[in-house]
Design goal:
The protein has 538 residues and is mostly beta strands. It contains 2 helices and 37 strands. The protein has a 5-stranded mixed β-sheet, with no helix packed on it. The radius of gyration is 29 Å and the shape is globular.
Length: 538
């Protein structure tokens, strides 16, 4: 029979085993490397998916795009390489809708045409739905820099086109969910602002039904009207996509720098983040910039985060990407270090006054650094990390932190992924060699003209003349309610009436018993005439 000392010893051993297993379990931290040894894999964007997994947009060497799908802990589930048989593709931004579809924006370099904006839509099974790229002889080249999906399913892309004159450079281009180009509009043009030069919209941000474009431009330096310097740039756009104002930031304060994104602080105040050059003449020393402004386009306050806020010697400090922790604290994916370039990426927590509370550097990381706030109020970061000291090959580093910069633990339990796809998804290749080409974007309507056209229901009749049956074809019925079709003869007598349903595309009308002559078809919505056409019965 065991005595008390033996029992205590056994209990102690059991507790030690349990605690050691628990410590092992909780010590498993959320940090994953994706990539293939001896290959240059580079991260560009991260999106949290509907099933709590993640979609990662990346690039392989200099030719192939890479879409990786992971589980909730960052482990790869499947991946798709996206390639063109005779072109080089680049990715800048990606987004997804509630159906799990991914839209990827960037550019494609065609040897005979140069580099032009490109857009790819991928369904919930990881297959290509459609792709487009753009060419126009109005410009030298172009690129999509950001993208979002609107509540009605339309896709809004932020583009930049380069020209020698630099009259129009920043564009919004809208597509429907099927890839049809609906409208395009330029902003911050030299026609309206003769002082502006080399304008770039880097980030597209939506608040309520309005939009902000953040980026940079070149603007005259105070006292030297013929000399332009880099300035942060904000463009405010209303719900009808009209430009309300532009703000070349810090002109009177001689701020030289750029913003890479915007955070909304309240209903009327915003904060751009990026970098500036305190020693503007040399353009060498770089500090993070917080540029606050209001909805009227007025500067309210700016803060330069000095590099000595981070453990000295730090000579370079910029914010790639930032998201709110709460109303006063923010999480930044940043680049900082002792050199004037080629510093590693990392992260830090900062407040509205530019105070840095905690920071971490990630050795051997480089390039783009991204952070997203997840549905569980944690933070997933992504960047590229070198494989060796030669700095020629790299992988993708993905990790998850809490609001205290502590690595998050792994989630246990069973999770269902890709439930919106009817079959199991296999890794493979997406061929974009057959992308549709959009040319002459100057022929695409403006937002004002496009949305005005939706207020009508154009009607076409065929065959015309008709003998037995005529087909009346409609557009835009999905934007209208209480729609009716009425047909009248040349004397104004009503010969036909029927109800038209939203999204109905056509009506087939029997005219075999009608008198020979001219007729008019009138379509009304809520009692107002929105479309009509004439046709002949013979």
């Amino acid at each position: 029979m065991l005595n008390m000392k033996q029992i205590l010893l056994i209990v102690t051993i059991i507790l030690i085993v349990i605690l050691s297993q628990a410590e092992f379990c909780f010590s498993q931290r959320w940090e994953i490397i994706h990539g293939v040894p001896t290959r240059k894999d580079v991260l560009y964007d991260i999106v949290e998916q509907y099933d709590l997994g993640y979609s990662i947009g990346a690039k392989i060497d200099t030719v192939i795009l890479w879409n990786i799908k992971t589980d909730i802990n960052g482990n790869s589930l499947w991946d798709k390489t996206i390639q063109h048989n005779s072109a080089i593709s680049f990715i800048t931004s990606m987004t997804r809708n509630s159906s799990g579809e991914i839209v990827i924006a960037g550019s494609i370099y065609l040897s005979e045409l140069g580099g032009w904006p490109s857009i790819i839509k991928i369904d919930s099974c990881g297959e290509k739905v459609w792709c487009r790229y753009f060419y126009t002889d109005q410009f030298i080249h172009g690129v999509f820099l950001d993208i979002m999906i609107l509540n009605n399913g339309d896709i809004l892309a932020l583009a930049r086109f380069e020209s020698y004159e630099q009259n129009e450079q920043v564009f919004l281009i809208c597509f429907d969910e099927n890839g049809n180009m609906l409208w395009e509009q330029s902003y911050a043009t030299k026609y309206d602002y003769p002082e502006i030069a080399f304008a770039i919209g880097w980030d597209l941000y939506q608040f309520q039904d309005h939009f902000l474009i953040s980026g940079y431009c070149y603007w005259p330096y105070p006292g030297t009207p013929n000399v332009v310097w880099m300035r942060p740039l904000f463009i405010y756009i209303d719900s009808d996509f009209n430009e309300q104002w532009i703000l070349p930031y810090g002109v009177s304060d001689s701020i030289v720098g750029k913003v890479l994104g915007t955070i909304q602080l309240s209903d009327s105040e915003f904060m751009g983040y990026g970098k500036c050059y305190p020693d503007e003449k040399s353009g060498i020393l770089t500090n993070a910039l917080l540029a606050r402004f209001n909805s009227l386009g007025q500067e309210t306050e700016y803060v330069i985060i000095p590099s000595d806020e981070i453990n000295p010697p730090t000579n370079f400090n910029l914010i790639h990407n930032a998201v709110p922790i709460n109303d006063t604290l923010f999480m930044a994916s940043a680049n900082f270090g002792p050199a004037y370039q080629e510093n590693p990426n990392g992260e830090y927590i900062f407040d509205l006054n530019g105070n840095i509370y905690q920071y971490q550097s990630r050795p051997n990381t480089w390039g783009t650094s991204k952070v997203i706030k997840t549905s569980d109020n944690k933070f997933v970061f992504g960047t590229s990390i070198f494989e060796d000291e030669k700095l020629l090959k790299s992988d993708i580093l993905l990790y998850k932190l809490n609001a205290y910069l502590e690595q998050d633990t792994l989630y246990t339990g069973n999770y269902t992924y890709d439930s919106l796809c009817p079959h199991q998804i296999q890794s493979g290749v997406i061929d974009i060699s057959d992308c549709g080409i959009v040319v002459n974007i100057d022929e695409i309507p403006s937002p004002k003209a496009y949305y005005a056209s939706l207020k009508t229901i154009p009607v076409k009749a065929f065959p015309n003349p008709a003998r037995e049956q005529i087909t009346l074809q409609y557009e835009n019925t999905g934007y209208h309610t209480n729609i009716r079709l009425q047909c009248f003869d040349i004397l104004g007598r009503k010969v036909h009436v029927e109800k038209i349903y939203p999204y109905q595309g056509a009506s087939n009308v029997d005219v075999s018993k009608w008198n020979v002559g001219m007729y008019v078809a009138i379509v009304t919505s809520e009692g107002k005439v929105v479309g009509k056409c004439k046709f002949i019965v013979k």
